[in-house]
Amino acid sequence: MSSTGFATIDFETTGLFAAGDDRAVEIAVVHSDPDGTVTGRWDTLIDPGRGPGPTRIHRITAEHLSGAPTFGDIAPELLGLLSGRVLVAHNVSFDQRFLLAELGRIGYRLENPLVSLCTMQLARHYLPGLRRGLSSCCEVLGIDLEGAHRASVDALATAKLLAAYMAHTDDRSGWHALAASAAARPLPALASRGVAWYPRERAGEPLALRFG
Hints:
Blueprint: E1 6-13, E2 24-32, E3 38-45, H1 55-58, H2 62-65, H3 71-82, E4 86-89, H4 92-105, E5 116-118, H5 119-126, H6 134-141, H7 151-167, H8 173-183, H9 200-203, H10 206-209
Parallel strand pairs: 1-4, 4-5
Antiparallel strand pairs: 1-2, 2-3
Helix pairs in contact: 6-7
């Protein structure tokens, strides 16, 4: 696959403190090309080695996680999906903190800072005067966010938000330069453990609906 463009991510977590006891329980990645067109989507639950945290928010239960891989299991494929791409998220500092914390727990250290982009911060320019939460941004632009706080839903909505920003930019040279900068910094690879990703559908999605 091409390694040029953007990788929008979203984590669902057991809590807010990446450097403490909180862990990732789900991640989604959405690829977009340098012009913002979505070209691929991936997601998986992650066994955090502890309870799932705020089930009322992310609707992930211990039952869902019983067959999920660990972060170390999915890290090689995740790094491959992120390598050479601009890391995008809505509140990217939150998702990047969890990414770096989880990578650190398996002994992986980045040689260079990630090239990243925050759609929440960009809302100051593209959607001035509005509340900058993902739901508010998506509502004003007509982007579907049904099923929010599911990583695959939030990541896709954020990728579409990025595309909307790009569509309202007359000169896209800045976007392309950012993508080129990320392409020049590929991430060191890890050997695959051969573990398949485990999206919610495999875990029995109807379980989640009990908490809707």
